[in-house]
TrEMBL record:
UniProt organism field: Pararobbsia alpina
Lineage, top ranks: Bacteria, Pseudomonadati, Pseudomonadota, Betaproteobacteria, Burkholderiales
Ranges in a coiled coil: none
Any Pfam family matching the protein: Esterase
InterPro entries, sorted: AB_hydrolase_fold, Esterase-like, Mycobacterial_A85_antigen
Region (Disordered): 57-90
SUPFAM superfamilies documented for this protein: alpha/beta-Hydrolases
Keyword Chloroplast: no
Descriptive protein name: Esterase
Length: 448
């Protein structure tokens, strides 16, 4: 049996034979590594798993990137406090001061949308039943990931034996704009890490929607915030949903979430992909792009803060061994037989190892706004030294390949900003949403 097949069999065994157990509550997060992993290749760009250290200041925690790194695409640096125009495209540098836009604050004279909340559980799911649970140490979030090892000879293949089937429940928040006319097929934006108990502060989004819809700068749209299935990163339900590079999550949303939204919030949602958008934060931002990439028949507009365009897909897929890193960069590591692990099924894969997805695919009808901070994540998992875990470098590379392929995009590099930076969100979300919907063919029709 080859090592790839043995690993695939191990994954299947973990998902199909272990006893169901509840997730362990993590009251506090363990401190994750933010420096170079042991044994990292920082000297030979032609060797596998090279980590590019150019423009990195390792004296800060987390490390700080220089936006004028010559390895990054050229960008326009804006005066402090200014954000890019909604009429512009390309790469921009903002900060270091991040004051909220006026639209990010609730206005007393503006009608407010209503928010409907319902709960979804794994017992009701077809696509994500059973769920995935990882056994972390009590009070030590992600400990099982930080203490994991990689497959022999392959630093890109993290082994997480502490994961097993389990159950999940999640909140779904549905914002319905003021004045919604029942029966109207509404445009909508769907975002991950939703729900009132997530780390994303949904009220900022709701305020921006209230104010921009009232000012006729956005169409009256529904916003659907879907909570993650649980935990984070490799071996978790959240990681399984958001970091998998396939159309599965988009199909789950379409088949299992949107019908519940229409039923519980008493709305009708459009089927037109040009009137649908996705949004996310960190791994859910990677999922937002993946939804549009694999299902452009469903979504054309994408917005992401600190997208996890890195090698975080788990289970490891030898057809895409670099995970989301392969959207923009060729995978550099040992070639293995192509196998695809999907749930409990292991099948031969037709995709070639190491082929970047965007440069090797016909241009898709995707309009993309995204952001990364100068202090975004840099190697948060100790065992990994694979050259594919620098969030800022990954998104700079996304900007490079999107420009080369002629995509409509706007990329914001935010100074004085960490991972999924709250202040940057409050400063930029107004402009980001206006840019995202700039060419929207309003008004809304009852028949679409």
């Amino acid at each position: 049996m080859t090592k790839a097949k043995a690993h695939a069999v191990l994954v299947v065994a973990l998902l199909s034979t272990a006893a169901v157990a509840p997730a362990i509550a993590a009251d506090t997060a363990c401190v994750s590594p933010t420096s170079l992993p042991a044994g990292a290749n920082t000297s030979d760009p032609k060797a596998p798993f090279f980590i590019d250290m150019a423009g990195l200041d390792l004296k800060t925690t987390p490390p700080t990137r220089d936006p004028h790194n010559p390895n990054y695409p050229k960008a326009t640096e804006l005066p402090d406090g200014q954000v890019p125009s909604i009429n512009s495209e390309g790469n921009f540098i903002i900060g270091p001061t991040h004051r909220p836009s006026p639209e990010a604050v609730a206005q007393a004279n503006v009608p407010h949308g209503t928010v409907h909340t319902f709960i979804m559980t794994s017992a009701d799911s077809v696509i994500y039943r059973p769920g995935m649970v990882r056994d972390d140490m009590p009070g030590c979030q992600n400990s099982a990931v930080n203490s994991s090892s990689t497959a022999p000879g392959d630093k890109s293949d993290l082994l997480v034996p502490a994961s097993h089937p389990g159950s999940w429940s999640r909140e779904v928040d549905v914002y319905v704009p003021a004045g919604y006319v029942p029966g109207t097929a509404a445009p909508f934006i769907v975002y991950g890490d939703g729900g009132r108990h997530s780390f994303f502060k949904e009220q900022v989004l709701f305020n921006v929607l209230d104010n921009l819809i009232h000012a006729h700068k956005l169409p009256p749209m529904v916003a659907i915030g879907i909570g993650a299935g649980g935990q984070d990163a490799q071996g978790s339900e959240r990681g399984r949903e958001y970091d998998t590079v396939s159309g599965t999550y988009a199909e789950w949303v379409e088949q299992e979430v949107l019908p519940r939204v229409e039923q519980n919030a008493h709305v009708r949602l459009t089927k037109d992909p040009d009137r649908r958008a996705t949004m996310g934060f960190s791994s859910s931002a990677a999922a937002a792009f993946t939804m549009a990439w694999f299902r452009p028949d469903l979504y054309h507009r994408v917005l992401g803060y600190s997208p996890t365009m890195v090698n975080q897909q788990w289970p490891h897929d030898t057809a895409l061994p670099g995970g989301a890193w392969q959207y923009h960069d060729a995978w550099s590591g040992p070639i293995k037989p192509n196998l695809t692990v999907s749930g409990k099924t292991v099948t031969p894969a037709s995709a070639s190892n190491g082929a970047p997805l965007i440069p090797n695919s016909p241009r898709k009808p995707i309009r993309y706004w995204f952001e990364a901070g100068d202090r975004d994540l840099f190697y948060p998992v100790g065992p990994l030294a694979d050259g594919m875990h620098d969030w800022t470098a990954a998104n700079e590379d996304m900007a490079r390949v999107l420009a080369a392929e002629g995509y409509h995009y706007q990329f914001v590099f935010s100074r004085n900003a960490g991972h999924v930076d709250d202040a940057t969100e409050a400063q930029t979300m107004t402009e980001a949403l206006e840019w995202l919907w700039k060419d929207y063919p309003a008004p809304v029709s009852r028949n679409n």
